[in-house]
Queue: 3 jobs
Job 1
Amino acid sequence: MDSLFSDKFFYHIYPLGLCGCPRRNDFSCPAGTSFEKLAGELDRIKSLGVNAILIGPVFESSSHGYDTVDYFHVDRRLGNNESFKKFCDSCHEKGLSVLLDAVFNHTGRDFFAFKDLIQNGRDSKYRDWYCNINFNGRSCFGDSFDYNGWAGCMDLVKLNGENPEVQEHLVSAVKNWIDLFGIDGLRLDAADVLSPSFMDRLSSETKKYKKDFWLFGEVVHGDYNGWAKSGRLDSVTNYQIYKSLWSALNTKNFFELSYNLNREFGADGMYRNIQLFNFVDNHDVNRIASTLDDCNLLHLIYALMFCIPGLPSIYYGSEWGIRGKRGDCDDYQLRPALPPFADRIPDFASPDVDSNALVETIKRFADTRAKNPALQLGDYRELFVSNLQFAFERSYKNQHTRVFVNLDSRPAKIKINGHPEVEVPAKWIVIE
């Protein structure tokens, strides 16, 4: 399971939300100071054990960042290219890799190519930049043509990723990001519907440009091997394990997690040679403190995430146990503004969460993983499973690390053949 990024622990930032930027871009405001504020948080973030920052979207957009207007300029609500370069430089000086959220499946309606299409219709030289342009119909915005939007969202206009001109524009933008900001990789938004030929070209050209460049994709459903493979992407988001983690704790049933870990990483596991991207929440799903029925299990779910196969990540603010649920029509509650001063942020946490203790748990298990090659690279083997107890082994070369998990509200003893009985405290983990 050797991987270029096997030692990484990610901190995921949605900057437009975290920094309290206006929800709409007026395209005339002066450059914001968000990156200077974020730079002031880097030491605190690094103290968690983090060594990689996932940030974005950061490029000019009309509203939430996923309706891109310009791939070559930073969103003015956040700052400008110069201030973002300084932020990236600060990250690198502190030993933090920088990965951007790259939105290549669609653009906003204010993107230059789509505006040209609105103005010139059939005569637009960009009519083939987008999917299924239909001049026999009208869009819901009253355009003289209809088109495809991502997941039915017509303000997110589906790009034709097979078009060589589109591919060239996007690949050129990424090379510009490497040159200007020195970024280390990308998260490909909506990778499950991106053009395979575009992803292959992006992989080939970026790795020639920067040999250790790392690509992972947002994939919710399907066989991850279709994306995470040689010549395409290095990794994808592991939504299957995300769901299994919190569901197992809520239902007090480790068999679901056991089944999916065996399916993915056991002796015949589908993904045993891939370092998948693990998370317990992100900018698209409810905060884990709002998902778990018992917030006392926050410590346990984070500890588990650092011990199972894959790359762990923390979504900003969740290290304090803040809550947030998706709205009926938007995700703003998942992407709140937080004050830039760490000693005030615990005030945003759930009242039944000891924020400082949760931070210490994350630090502890991040450090354990960082010092343990088996937890980073090791094979996975289940040792024991019941509704409330679970044990597994991670093995790498001559190192064997066993993890014992107890979901019960009382201490439990777990016996593995050939090994002494292990007593595990209530709602906790023992590693040996």
Note: Residues 164-181 form the longest helix (18 residues).
Job 2
Amino acid sequence: MKHYIYIAVIALVFLAFAVVFDTFPRSTVSELEKRELATFPEFSWERLADGSFTSDVSTWFSDSEPFRDVFMTLSMQVKDLIAIAPSEDNVKFQAGDMELEKGEGEEGNGKTAANSPEPKDSMTIDEYENHINADENAKIANAGIIIVGKGDKVRALMAYGGGPKGCVGYAQAANKYKEVFGDKVNVYCMVIPTAVEFYCPDKAKKRTNQQLPTIRNVVAHLDPGVKPVDVYTTLGKHANEDIYLRTDHHWSPLGGYYAAQEFARVAGVPFKDLSHYERRVTHGYVGSMYGYSKDISIKNAPEDFVYYVPQGVEYTTTYTNYTINKNYQVTGEGKPFTAPFFFKFKDGHGGAYCTMMGGDTKLTQVRTSTHNGRRVIILKDSFGNMLPGYLFFSFEEVHVIDSRYFTKDIIAYVAENKITDILFANNIFKAYSSHTYGSYLRFLHQQWHRPGASPEKAKGDSTVKHKEQSAPKKQEPAEKTEPAEKTESAEPADKVKAPAPVE
């Protein structure tokens, strides 16, 4: 009799799952994974014949299962209760658009860097010693994410897989800009380290590579006319403060403040301390690392997203929005419009990192009441979004250009806007990526025909001779936490409503 009861229970369970998965509405967006889920593929006889249609149907069926986030959360809770973590035997180390095994990818631009010069004497970068959580235990979660700490102090760290001879292409892109613009424009190069460099316990260091050797290699390859901005040392001095978000792969607005301060010092422009800013907070923020790590402890440890709004300076922000397709390629651009620089999110909103400028898929121009003849372009990924809000006292104009979406000829843009300074500001994952520095080189000669058309395809090599263009590789997003728009970052875009402007 017991056997029949057991069989009946199992049959009912399978029947319930069959009803749910075959009849309930399919999921279209995963808030947990911060991405749009697969859609039902278009049918064609050719795709049916080669098998791609049935393969895509299978992908759609498994990816869009009803209550996807509910089941994933339940799975994480069960694993947390029984303390099961993914195996450490096959961890891969992700670097932005790259996925590198440890020790690979040290050339950075396809050219040998075996004879890398020593770092310039003008900028000595000392190695950071972790005195905060060096002795703590850590566990390896999904995708090789390193989880450190417990309770409301838990922190998720993304392992770094780059090598000490990498990022040469990023330095060469900065050098090329200095060559093109000459003495009329100051060029600066900033490589932003990520949290794993400062908070990785000693016991987990074998799971990530050091970032300092890569940063030193960038500095070593910069031409004398390009000014390095050492934010590694700056951030290391403030590592005991909340300079990185615990639940997100980004740094915090406070980390951006210290980096902007160092940039202003190198650039020789005025800078105001935090007493000239109003402190604002979005409570209950859980960022991208919950979706990456699939570790319930991250969801259970929300943090405050603290940002700073400048006071005593006037500024007007103008945006030009880009239209992008499912491959994150620009297909059109809108008309310029004015809107607030700071956007307000409700407590608990997963898109709070987009407080500054509302995201990435746009060109931003800020005109300030600071009249000193200095106008800066910030060439950035989403880490760079934390910088411009601290520079309104420093420059009369701040132009923000994302590496993935700019559509104009930057030589003409610099001339038309009388730009005096250009700052390369990218996190080390993106600086390592050929997509990033390849885009910056392409900006020097690309042509944009009209909204709705694609930027002119490039041809030639990455040394960028006039009117020679190299075909840009397909650009994948690399940091995706953007409201109402798809954005960059080694993460899927956040599908959320557009935020209300800060009042």
Note: Residues 82-116, 449-503 have pLDDT under 50 and may be disordered.
Job 3
Amino acid sequence: MSGTENSMQELFARAASLLLGNDVDAAGDHDARLILQALEYAGESSNGIDSQLANRAHLLIAASRFARVFELASPDAPGLISFGAQFDPALADPLHDGSPMVGVSGVGLTLREAFQGCIGEGIEYLSQLQTGTDLLLEPGVDDWAGKLGPKALELVAALSERRMQPERALSWCRVTKLTDGGEVWLPADICLRRPPAQREFAPPFPLSIGSAAGPSRDAAALHGLLELIERDAASLWWRGGQLPRSLPPQPEAGIVAANLLQKLRHGVSTPRRTWLLDITTDIGVPCIAAVSCRADGSGFAFGLAARPTLEAAVRSAIVEMCQLELADNVVATKRSERGDEALNRQDRIHLQRAAIDADQCRLLQPVEECAAHLPLHATDASAIFGLIVQRLEKLGYDTFCIDLTRQRFAVPVVRVIAPGLQLEPSEIVTGRLQDAIVRTGGGATYTGGIPLI
């Protein structure tokens, strides 16, 4: 896709009109039709606008509002398609006027997959931003304390200790407790992205963890829940020191990995070495870390994924690994062109992690045993989501959900919160992580305390 930023914005808007059949003149719009063909949207009929077609049109409309949408090429994975985008948070609400531009990205094996991932991530971010119409509450202690379980109460207590003005009462958001469908309240600053001047505390973990956009509410909720499980597994592995396992002897997962890597690495003269680690926890949802490095063990990169099936986790982890390889290349280019002074905190974490010798770090070598995977035989997102929520409840973890879908963007966005699961990164150390460190001595023994994320 080429053209100036303004022309691309107009082109996305025209493509959305053509897709929806709203503009008679758009029927002869050759460039807009090419966009739809490139994204594999061209076969859609405007005679009946179903939910999938409407979702795709809303993604195109959102892209037309972004400041930039662009493609990136990965030298280590030429088969990877990557989109980046930048947008002004004020798109969500005037409350955020003057905020710095935000960047997002998406990757995949097709233009459609990468585009939808990138624009969906942008809509997820924008939908989580507080608006002037969001209703926040200031209930008394008796109004909420009795409705939260012990792990949620521990989280609230930890957040209360982080208040910038201890005398200032917390603001709260209504959320749904998924085990019984009841309404409860959780602190607003972990539910919404609020303007800095209005926050009672700085969130101790990225608010993107557990938040997701999707073609349906159920798909978004499942994606958010799986991300919580993925980051919990990553933390117990990297900070908790739980050694990764080998993949079970299932040929399907190995075939998926081999075929995918062949597509992604095709054309690279010296491909990076790649292998897979099973970091599934007691929850049982398959969670995979895909790991790569150069021939000498330097340049360690990784990808994480929790999915209902092992094959799906393998695929997603490998694609995310290639995305991080691309990010590492961007940081290296930034450093060579502008020097160390141009690097931000996240850039420096990239460099520290990439300096780990992958051949010598024990956390990157699987032990010869297999994890037990939860049998998730359902096929639709709602049923799978329900099975995982039940599994978490059995282990003592409540799950909460807030629907953040905004009419302005009309794409389903859901935030899922599961107090007690360990997020990564996070300034709060849960009992779950503490127990793992006590059992193993902690991951810092192998990593020197270098952050994973």
Note: The chain has 13 helices and eleven strands.
